Amino acid sequence: MKTFSRKFSYHTKKCFDFIDVTEDIKKAVEESNIKNGLVNIQILHTSASLIVNENEPLLLEDIASSLEKMAPSNLEYKHDDFSIRTVNVCAGECKNGHSHCKAILLLPSVTLNLIDKKVQFGRWQRVMLVELDRARPREIQVQVIGG
Fold it and tell me: What is the C-alpha separation between 33 and 83, in angstroms, rounded?
């Protein structure tokens, strides 16, 4: 069994920025020279996620609206109270409890089948990085496993 890893960097523009990373995943698979196996894609952050869905603008608006209803940005989150929070606090940190709560509703990684050097996608399926916080640098790690 062989493995191949590749990291991709992106810069999001805003909360609910949906970045289609499908073509980068296909490039990593091509570079891997692995014919059959699995492709795992992992986001390396806790306030952004991955989805496999249609890249259709109105649907993406619906997804954003649904996530905002489930973890509204305007609620008070204990994570945002820097007078009591003592764990994992960085200098200049923003209030982003809502983005972490949205992230638990989505996926930190997705695994796709690789057959005959092709990632197996349904007709409309695309892999998208979903920004749940604010404009910032983001990374995903792609690992191809197989033979």
Answer: 52
Contacts of 115 (CB under 8 A, 6+ apart): 36
The token duo for 22 is 């499908």
- How far is it, in rounded angstroms, from Cα 66 to Cα 137? 24
Q: Which domains does the chain have, with CATH numbers?
A: 2-146 (2.60.120.460)
Contact 4, 32 (CB under 8 A): yes
Mind listing the pLDDT tens digit of every residue in the chain (147 residues)?
Answer: 999 999 999 999 999 999 999 999 999 999 999 999 999 999 999 999 999 999 999 999 999 999 999 999 999 999 999 999 989 988 888 899 999 999 999 999 999 999 999 999 999 999 999 999 999 999 999 999 999
What is this structure's pTM? Answer: 0.95
Choose among 141, 143, 142, 128: nearest CA to 12: 128
- Structure-token pair, residue 29: 């698979």
